[in-house]
Specification:
The chain is α+β, with helices and mostly antiparallel strands and 272 residues long. The chain contains five helices and 13 strands. It starts with a helix and ends with a strand. Keywords: Signal.
Length: 272
Protein backbone atom coordinates (compact mmCIF):
# COMPACT_ATOMS: atom_id res chain seq x y z
CA UNK A 1 0.00 0.00 0.00
CA UNK A 2 2.86 2.38 0.81
CA UNK A 3 4.39 1.66 -2.58
CA UNK A 4 1.06 2.31 -4.28
CA UNK A 5 0.62 5.58 -2.40
CA UNK A 6 4.15 6.59 -3.35
CA UNK A 7 3.51 5.87 -7.00
CA UNK A 8 0.28 7.85 -6.90
CA UNK A 9 2.06 10.75 -5.22
CA UNK A 10 4.83 10.63 -7.82
CA UNK A 11 2.29 10.66 -10.64
CA UNK A 12 0.51 13.66 -9.13
CA UNK A 13 3.81 15.46 -8.67
CA UNK A 14 4.80 14.83 -12.27
CA UNK A 15 1.42 16.06 -13.48
CA UNK A 16 1.89 19.28 -11.52
CA UNK A 17 5.36 19.80 -12.96
CA UNK A 18 4.18 19.13 -16.50
CA UNK A 19 1.33 21.56 -16.02
CA UNK A 20 3.81 24.20 -14.89
CA UNK A 21 5.84 24.01 -18.09
CA UNK A 22 4.54 26.22 -20.92
CA UNK A 23 3.23 24.16 -23.80
CA UNK A 24 5.58 23.81 -26.76
CA UNK A 25 4.88 26.42 -29.44
CA UNK A 26 5.76 25.57 -33.01
CA UNK A 27 7.97 22.76 -31.74
CA UNK A 28 10.02 25.07 -29.51
CA UNK A 29 9.66 24.83 -25.73
CA UNK A 30 9.49 28.22 -24.07
CA UNK A 31 11.95 28.52 -21.12
CA UNK A 32 10.37 27.84 -17.73
CA UNK A 33 10.49 31.48 -16.71
CA UNK A 34 9.71 32.65 -20.24
CA UNK A 35 11.97 35.64 -19.78
CA UNK A 36 15.09 37.16 -21.22
CA UNK A 37 18.38 36.11 -19.56
CA UNK A 38 19.96 38.81 -17.42
CA UNK A 39 23.70 38.70 -16.69
CA UNK A 40 24.92 40.01 -13.35
CA UNK A 41 26.40 43.13 -14.96
CA UNK A 42 23.11 44.18 -16.49
CA UNK A 43 22.01 47.66 -15.45
CA UNK A 44 18.29 47.28 -16.15
CA UNK A 45 16.29 44.27 -15.02
CA UNK A 46 12.59 43.34 -14.86
CA UNK A 47 12.55 44.55 -11.25
CA UNK A 48 13.13 48.15 -12.28
CA UNK A 49 12.21 48.10 -15.97
CA UNK A 50 8.58 49.05 -15.54
CA UNK A 51 5.21 48.28 -14.02
CA UNK A 52 2.99 45.29 -14.66
CA UNK A 53 2.07 45.12 -18.32
CA UNK A 54 5.38 46.66 -19.37
CA UNK A 55 6.57 45.65 -22.86
CA UNK A 56 10.38 45.23 -22.96
CA UNK A 57 10.46 45.04 -26.76
CA UNK A 58 10.46 48.84 -26.88
CA UNK A 59 13.69 49.22 -24.90
CA UNK A 60 17.35 48.24 -25.01
CA UNK A 61 19.05 46.06 -22.37
CA UNK A 62 22.78 45.59 -22.10
CA UNK A 63 22.91 41.79 -22.04
CA UNK A 64 23.67 41.79 -25.80
CA UNK A 65 24.90 44.21 -28.45
CA UNK A 66 21.57 44.30 -30.28
CA UNK A 67 18.10 42.95 -29.65
CA UNK A 68 15.52 42.09 -32.28
CA UNK A 69 11.93 41.52 -31.25
CA UNK A 70 9.55 39.91 -33.76
CA UNK A 71 5.77 39.82 -33.53
CA UNK A 72 4.46 36.30 -33.03
CA UNK A 73 0.74 36.87 -33.58
CA UNK A 74 -1.26 37.76 -35.48
CA UNK A 75 0.52 36.76 -38.68
CA UNK A 76 0.64 39.18 -41.60
CA UNK A 77 1.03 38.15 -45.23
CA UNK A 78 3.50 39.77 -47.60
CA UNK A 79 2.19 37.78 -50.56
CA UNK A 80 4.72 37.03 -53.29
CA UNK A 81 7.14 39.74 -52.15
CA UNK A 82 9.65 37.56 -50.33
CA UNK A 83 13.36 37.15 -49.70
CA UNK A 84 15.68 39.68 -51.34
CA UNK A 85 12.78 41.47 -53.05
CA UNK A 86 11.10 42.07 -49.70
CA UNK A 87 14.39 43.33 -48.29
CA UNK A 88 14.87 45.81 -51.14
CA UNK A 89 11.30 47.10 -50.88
CA UNK A 90 11.36 47.58 -47.10
CA UNK A 91 14.87 49.05 -47.18
CA UNK A 92 13.92 51.50 -49.92
CA UNK A 93 10.76 52.69 -48.22
CA UNK A 94 12.32 53.09 -44.78
CA UNK A 95 15.28 54.92 -46.30
CA UNK A 96 12.91 57.25 -48.16
CA UNK A 97 10.40 57.92 -45.39
CA UNK A 98 12.98 57.97 -42.58
CA UNK A 99 15.84 60.00 -44.09
CA UNK A 100 18.83 60.97 -42.03
CA UNK A 101 18.11 64.19 -40.17
CA UNK A 102 20.79 63.93 -37.51
CA UNK A 103 23.16 66.87 -37.21
CA UNK A 104 26.51 67.48 -35.60
CA UNK A 105 26.58 71.03 -34.32
CA UNK A 106 28.00 73.13 -31.53
CA UNK A 107 30.27 70.29 -30.52
CA UNK A 108 27.32 67.97 -30.03
CA UNK A 109 24.85 65.83 -31.95
CA UNK A 110 21.20 66.44 -32.72
CA UNK A 111 19.62 62.98 -32.86
CA UNK A 112 17.91 61.84 -36.02
CA UNK A 113 14.35 60.60 -35.73
CA UNK A 114 11.47 59.06 -37.66
CA UNK A 115 8.03 59.97 -36.36
CA UNK A 116 5.42 57.63 -37.80
CA UNK A 117 5.35 58.64 -41.48
CA UNK A 118 2.41 57.50 -43.59
CA UNK A 119 2.32 55.92 -47.02
CA UNK A 120 4.56 52.88 -46.48
CA UNK A 121 3.47 49.49 -47.80
CA UNK A 122 3.05 47.46 -50.97
CA UNK A 123 0.38 45.61 -52.95
CA UNK A 124 0.10 41.86 -52.47
CA UNK A 125 -2.02 38.87 -53.40
CA UNK A 126 -4.05 37.04 -50.75
CA UNK A 127 -5.99 33.80 -50.60
CA UNK A 128 -9.72 34.50 -50.38
CA UNK A 129 -11.42 31.13 -50.78
CA UNK A 130 -9.11 28.08 -51.05
CA UNK A 131 -7.84 26.57 -53.14
CA UNK A 132 -7.92 28.98 -56.07
CA UNK A 133 -9.80 32.18 -55.26
CA UNK A 134 -7.08 34.82 -54.86
CA UNK A 135 -7.62 38.56 -54.52
CA UNK A 136 -5.59 41.75 -54.52
CA UNK A 137 -4.68 43.00 -51.06
CA UNK A 138 -2.25 45.39 -49.44
CA UNK A 139 0.44 45.04 -46.79
CA UNK A 140 0.70 48.24 -44.79
CA UNK A 141 3.81 49.29 -42.88
CA UNK A 142 2.83 51.64 -40.10
CA UNK A 143 3.72 52.81 -36.57
CA UNK A 144 7.24 53.50 -37.81
CA UNK A 145 9.24 55.11 -35.01
CA UNK A 146 12.97 55.47 -34.67
CA UNK A 147 15.90 57.48 -33.33
CA UNK A 148 19.59 57.37 -34.22
CA UNK A 149 22.81 59.20 -33.55
CA UNK A 150 24.12 59.31 -37.11
CA UNK A 151 23.44 58.06 -40.62
CA UNK A 152 25.58 54.94 -40.21
CA UNK A 153 23.46 53.79 -37.28
CA UNK A 154 20.27 54.71 -39.16
CA UNK A 155 21.34 52.50 -42.08
CA UNK A 156 22.23 49.65 -39.74
CA UNK A 157 18.80 49.88 -38.10
CA UNK A 158 17.06 49.82 -41.48
CA UNK A 159 19.23 46.91 -42.58
CA UNK A 160 18.37 44.96 -39.44
CA UNK A 161 14.61 45.51 -39.91
CA UNK A 162 14.66 44.67 -43.61
CA UNK A 163 17.06 41.76 -43.02
CA UNK A 164 14.76 40.28 -40.40
CA UNK A 165 11.83 40.25 -42.82
CA UNK A 166 14.03 38.79 -45.54
CA UNK A 167 15.19 36.03 -43.19
CA UNK A 168 11.61 35.08 -42.29
CA UNK A 169 10.75 34.56 -45.98
CA UNK A 170 14.01 33.45 -47.61
CA UNK A 171 14.44 29.90 -48.97
CA UNK A 172 11.44 28.65 -47.00
CA UNK A 173 9.84 25.34 -48.00
CA UNK A 174 6.14 25.35 -48.82
CA UNK A 175 5.47 22.37 -46.58
CA UNK A 176 4.49 22.00 -42.94
CA UNK A 177 6.21 24.15 -40.30
CA UNK A 178 7.00 26.93 -42.75
CA UNK A 179 6.16 30.60 -43.01
CA UNK A 180 5.55 30.18 -46.72
CA UNK A 181 3.03 28.50 -48.98
CA UNK A 182 2.14 28.16 -52.64
CA UNK A 183 -0.10 30.80 -54.13
CA UNK A 184 -0.88 30.95 -57.84
CA UNK A 185 2.03 28.63 -58.52
CA UNK A 186 4.52 30.86 -56.70
CA UNK A 187 5.89 31.16 -53.19
CA UNK A 188 4.10 33.54 -50.82
CA UNK A 189 4.84 34.06 -47.12
CA UNK A 190 3.59 35.27 -43.77
CA UNK A 191 5.60 37.28 -41.25
CA UNK A 192 5.01 38.78 -37.81
CA UNK A 193 3.07 41.94 -37.14
CA UNK A 194 5.99 43.77 -35.51
CA UNK A 195 9.73 44.18 -35.98
CA UNK A 196 11.59 46.11 -33.28
CA UNK A 197 15.35 46.59 -33.37
CA UNK A 198 17.09 48.10 -30.34
CA UNK A 199 20.78 49.01 -30.42
CA UNK A 200 23.00 50.39 -27.63
CA UNK A 201 22.40 53.91 -26.38
CA UNK A 202 25.00 56.57 -27.10
CA UNK A 203 25.53 60.22 -26.32
CA UNK A 204 26.46 61.90 -23.05
CA UNK A 205 25.95 59.36 -20.29
CA UNK A 206 24.99 56.72 -22.87
CA UNK A 207 21.33 57.58 -22.47
CA UNK A 208 20.24 58.46 -26.02
CA UNK A 209 18.33 55.66 -27.75
CA UNK A 210 19.11 54.08 -31.12
CA UNK A 211 16.15 52.06 -32.35
CA UNK A 212 13.73 51.43 -35.22
CA UNK A 213 10.29 49.88 -34.73
CA UNK A 214 7.66 49.04 -37.34
CA UNK A 215 4.31 47.29 -37.55
CA UNK A 216 2.77 45.42 -40.49
CA UNK A 217 -0.87 44.78 -41.34
CA UNK A 218 -2.69 42.99 -44.15
CA UNK A 219 -6.40 42.25 -43.74
CA UNK A 220 -6.08 39.14 -45.93
CA UNK A 221 -3.61 37.32 -43.70
CA UNK A 222 -5.69 34.42 -42.41
CA UNK A 223 -4.36 31.76 -44.80
CA UNK A 224 -1.61 29.24 -43.98
CA UNK A 225 0.79 29.54 -41.02
CA UNK A 226 3.60 31.54 -39.46
CA UNK A 227 6.14 29.91 -37.12
CA UNK A 228 7.98 32.67 -35.33
CA UNK A 229 9.78 30.61 -32.70
CA UNK A 230 11.08 28.09 -35.21
CA UNK A 231 12.29 30.88 -37.50
CA UNK A 232 14.23 32.80 -34.89
CA UNK A 233 17.58 31.23 -35.79
CA UNK A 234 17.19 32.59 -39.33
CA UNK A 235 16.97 36.10 -37.91
CA UNK A 236 20.09 35.45 -35.84
CA UNK A 237 22.01 34.50 -38.98
CA UNK A 238 20.87 37.63 -40.80
CA UNK A 239 21.89 39.94 -37.94
CA UNK A 240 25.25 38.20 -37.63
CA UNK A 241 26.03 39.57 -41.08
CA UNK A 242 25.83 43.09 -39.63
CA UNK A 243 27.56 42.18 -36.39
CA UNK A 244 30.95 43.77 -36.88
CA UNK A 245 29.52 47.01 -38.24
CA UNK A 246 27.10 47.24 -35.32
CA UNK A 247 29.80 46.59 -32.70
CA UNK A 248 32.14 49.11 -34.35
CA UNK A 249 29.46 51.81 -34.13
CA UNK A 250 29.21 51.79 -30.35
CA UNK A 251 32.33 52.58 -28.28
CA UNK A 252 31.08 50.64 -25.25
CA UNK A 253 31.28 47.48 -27.40
CA UNK A 254 34.76 48.10 -28.81
CA UNK A 255 36.98 45.16 -27.91
CA UNK A 256 34.01 43.07 -26.82
CA UNK A 257 32.47 40.14 -28.65
CA UNK A 258 29.40 41.01 -30.70
CA UNK A 259 26.26 39.28 -29.43
CA UNK A 260 22.68 39.44 -30.62
CA UNK A 261 19.41 38.21 -29.27
CA UNK A 262 16.20 37.72 -31.25
CA UNK A 263 12.89 37.09 -29.53
CA UNK A 264 9.32 36.38 -30.55
CA UNK A 265 6.92 38.59 -28.60
CA UNK A 266 4.34 36.69 -26.57
CA UNK A 267 3.36 38.85 -23.60
CA UNK A 268 5.62 41.24 -21.71
CA UNK A 269 8.77 39.46 -20.60
CA UNK A 270 7.36 36.13 -21.81
CA UNK A 271 8.96 35.33 -25.15
CA UNK A 272 10.39 32.49 -27.18
Amino acid sequence: MKILNSLIGLAIGLAILVGAVPAPEDGVIVPLNGSVPFPTNMTTTPDNAGPAGYDPSFDYFDYSTVQIWVGKAPQQTVGHLVGADLYKTVWGQLDHYCPDNSQTRWGGVKWGHCDNPSGLGFPARCMYIPPASVIDCYTQIYAVWGEWENDKIRRLLIGAVAGTLEALTKDQPITAHSNCFQLEGRVACNVGDAIRVNMPPTGVGNNEKNYLHIMLKNSGSWYSDYHCCESRYLVDRAIDGLGQEIADSFPQWWGRQFTRDSRCIINGWTSC
